[in-house]
Design a protein that fits this description.
2 domains; 0% strand; mainly alpha
C-alpha cells in the first residue's frame, strides 16, 4: 500500500508538471517531487516502527532544506538542521534499542510540541531580524551609490554644459556650479 501511495504522489506530481520547476539552473521541481514521496515514506515507516524511516528522514531533511532555500525560504538553513538532528538522533537511538515501545501521549508529548513551536518561531524571527539588518544595509548602500551617481552625472554635465550653453546647464541642474566657475 505504501508503494501505491508513493507512485500516486509521483505520477500526479509529474502529470501536473511540478518536475519542470527550475531555479538557478537546478531542477528544484524534481527534488521537490521526490522529496514529497520520500517524506511520505518516512512517515509511513516511522509509524510502523521501522528505523529505515529515520534514515530516509535524514536525506529528506537535506533535500527539503535545499528545495525550500531555492524557493525563497532563506531561513531553511536555520530550521532544517534541527530536523536533520532529530532524525539522526532518532535513527541512532532506535538502532541501539530495537525493542523500544512508543510513549503514550503525556505531558512530555505536549512539552515537545511546545518546544518545537517556540524553537521554530525563534529561528524564523532570528532570520527575519538578520534579513532586516541586511536589507537596511543594502538600502543604505543603494542610497549612497545613487547619490554618487547623481553627483557624477551632474559633475559630468556641468563640465560639458560650461562649454555648450546655459540652456543645457538649466536642464541638467548644473547652473550654480558652472556659474561659480565662470
Amino acid at each position: 500500500m505504501d508503494v501505491i501511495g508513493v507512485l500516486l504522489v509521483l505520477v500526479i506530481s509529474f502529470a501536473l508538471g511540478f518536475h519542470k520547476t527550475i531555479r538557478q539552473d537546478l531542477p528544484i521541481g524534481i527534488f521537490s517531487t521526490f522529496g514529497a514521496a520520500g517524506s511520505m515514506m518516512v512517515t509511513r515507516l516511522v509509524t510502523k516502527r521501522n528505523n529505515i524511516g529515520n534514515l530516509i528522514g535524514l536525506l529528506t531533511a537535506v533535500n527539503s532544506a535545499f528545495v525550500d532555500y531555492y524557493l525563497g525560504n532563506d531561513a531553511a538553513f536555520l530550521t532544517y538542521p534541527i530536523s536533520f538532528l532529530g532524525a539522526g538522533i532518532s535513527y541512532l537511538y532506535w538502532k541501539r534499542r530495537k525493542d523500544r515501545i512508543p510513549r503514550k501521549i503525556d505531558s512530555i508529548y505536549f512539552i515537545n510540541i511546545g518546544f518545537a513551536f517556540v524553537l521554530g518561531i525563534a529561528l524564523n524571527y532570528i532570520h527575519a531580524d538578520t534579513d532586516d539588518d541586511e536589507y537596511e544595509h543594502q538600502r543604505q548602500i543603494g542610497q549612497r551609490d545613487s547619490k554618487q551617481r547623481r553627483q557624477t552625472k551632474t559633475d559630468d554635465l556641468g563640465e560639458h554644459d560650461h562649454y555648450h550653453g546655459a540652456k543645457a546647464q538649466r536642464e541638467s541642474g548644473a547652473t550654480e556650479r558652472c556659474s561659480a566657475q565662470q
